[in-house]
Structures are given as C-alpha cells and as structure tokens.
Amino acid sequence: MNRNSRTLALVAAAAAVAITGFLVLRPSDDSPSSSSATTTTSASSSATTTSETPTTLPDATVIHLVGGQPVGGKQKISVKKGDTIRIKVTTDEAGEIHVHGFDLEQEATPSKPASFTFKANIEGRFEVESHASNAQIAEISVNP
C-alpha cells in the first residue's frame, strides 16, 4: 500500500468515526423539551428558574410498529400513581397513536415518532392504540 492509499484510508476511517460519534451523541427527538403535542404538563418541564433539584425523567418505553403491529407484542407498562410516563412510538406507516384515559393523541410517521410524556394521575388500566391498524400496542397499569 503506497503512502497516498494509506492517507486516504486514514481520512476515510476518521470520517467514519466522526459520523458514528455524531449519530451516537446527538440529542434524541424524545427529550422533554421537544415540541411534542401532549395535553398535560409537568412541573419538571416548566421554564421557571428555581433552586430546586431537577427531576430525572424515566427512560421512554419505545414501541416499534411494523405493519401496524407492535414488534415483540403488546407492551406492558406498570407505574405508581404520580409517576411520569414516557412513551415513544416508531412506525413504518403513518397513523395516529392514542393513549386512552389520558386523552392524548399524536400522529406518528416513519420520519417522526410519536412521543408522550405525562403524569400518571389516574389509577387503573389504560390502553395505547394505533388508530391506523386499530391495534392495542400497550397497556398502562397505574397502581396506588
């Protein structure tokens, strides 16, 4: 391998590492400061400056839909009343995602997942449904 070939190989490898690093470290679309359309708000996402310690949000439950059906089957989400729930739904087909009981709805497309962040302020069992396929994709259990 001559010097020019080695230099070209090193430049290509450095570019690949830089692109991979960017993809891994870039901010995700499901951050609480994103412009997701939810009908509830939480105190931790308000824009006031206080001396309170910020609340850490739980990881989002990610549901992948293929052909309108959840990969791996219907997700079970169990929380205590007052907990924050985060759900992210990716899909290969456009369609509305509905969180029953909390009356939250969002459009999900292949290029833009639906993201929900809300307080579990109602006890009971609630289904998350894909209106495109009329499939129940998750069940939320809110316990006392």
Provide a descriptive summary of the structure in words.
- The chain is built from one helix and nine strands; from the N terminus they run αβββββββββ.
- The protein is α+β, with helices and mostly antiparallel strands and 144 residues long.
- It has a domain at 56-143: Sandwich (Immunoglobulin-like), CATH 2.60.40.420.
- A five-stranded mixed sheet has the order 3-9-8-5-6, with no helix packed on it. Strands 2-1-4-7 form a four-stranded mixed sheet, with no helix packed on it.
Compose a concise summary of this entry:
The chain has 144 residues and is of the alpha+beta class.
Strand content range: 35-45%
Number of helices: 1
* Unreliable residue runs: 21-25, 29-51
Structural class based on helices, strands and sheet pairing:
alpha+beta
Tell me what the CATH architecture of the domain at 56-143 is.
Answer: Sandwich
Strand order of the largest sheet: 3-9-8-5-6
CATH-defined fold name of the domain at 56-143: Immunoglobulin-like
Alpha-carbon Rg, integer: 20 Å
| Topology as a string of helices (H) and strands (E) | HEEEEEEEEE
Q: What is the CATH superfamily label of the domain at 56-143? A: Cupredoxins -  blue copper proteins
* Largest pleated sheet: 5 strands, mixed
Shape: elongated
CATH level 1 name of the domain at 56-143: Mainly Beta
Helix content: 10-25%
Beta strands, count: 9
How far the N terminus sits from the C terminus, by CA atoms, comes to 68 Å
Q: Average pLDDT, to the nearest integer?
A: 78
